[in-house]
Amino acid sequence: MTVSNDVLIKEIVGAIRRLIRAVSIDSVKMSRQFSLTAPQSGVLRCLAHNGAISSADLSRELYVTPSNITGIIDRLERKGLVQRVRKEDDRRVTLIQLTDEGRKLSRELPDPIEIRLIAGLSELQEKEVRKLDDSLDKIIDILDAKELEDSPLH
User: Fold this and answer.
1) b/e per residue, 130-148, with b = 16+ CB within 10 A?
2) Which of 13, 108, 113, 125 has the most CB atoms lying inside 10 A of its own CB?
3) At what angle do helices 113-122 and 3-34 cross, to 10 degrees?
4) Would you say 99 and 81 are in contact if contact means Cβ atoms under 8 Å apart?
5) Model confidence at 151: pLDDT above 80
6) What residue spans define the domains of the chain?
7) What's the pTM?
8) Taking a C-beta distance cutoff of 8 angstroms, is the pair 81, 105 a contact?
9) What is the C-alpha separation between 75 and 96, in angstroms, rounded?
10) Are 36 and 30 in contact (CB under 8 A)?
């Protein structure tokens, strides 16, 4: 490893730390300002976008395990932001929907860091995006993180 390679590696590791910190700060802001965790705000956004859906569909949409989504929904229900309702044509199916208060709060939520990242990346040329994708794949391989869930940041 050359001296310049050492410097570049330190810069890459520093950049990754800044990315992790940015995600963490975004999550803390959301928690302080709206008393929501990132997964809770993700549920509100998903319901605002999709309307009432089952908890199974919600867990698939947000890449969250069914047991975790149940806990998230329980906490949002206690806050009065969502409610469970029986599906009209099939009473065996329970749908999760926003309450009026949940709908109001979902409109007030700031864009999460993921939306800003997607918007910024979409402005790049395809060649640049492919290069970033290849580089991130290499980093993920180095960290042996291929098996981790690809869960949204919100």
Assistant:
1) eeeeeeeeeeeeeeeeeee
2) 113
3) 130
4) yes
5) no
6) 3-142
7) 0.68
8) yes
9) 13
10) yes
Residue 5 in tokens: 């390679």
First to last CA, the chain: 38
What integer is the mean pLDDT of 116-127? 94
Copy the structure tokens of residue 96.
């999760």
Structure tokens at 71: 């806990």
Give me the architecture of the 3-142 domain, per CATH: Orthogonal Bundle (1.10)
Instruction: Give the integer Cα–Cα distance in Å for 78 and 60.
Output: 23
84 in Cβ contact with 96 (< 8 Å): yes
Task: Read off the amino acid at residue 99.
Answer: T
Q: Which amino acid is at 100?
A: D
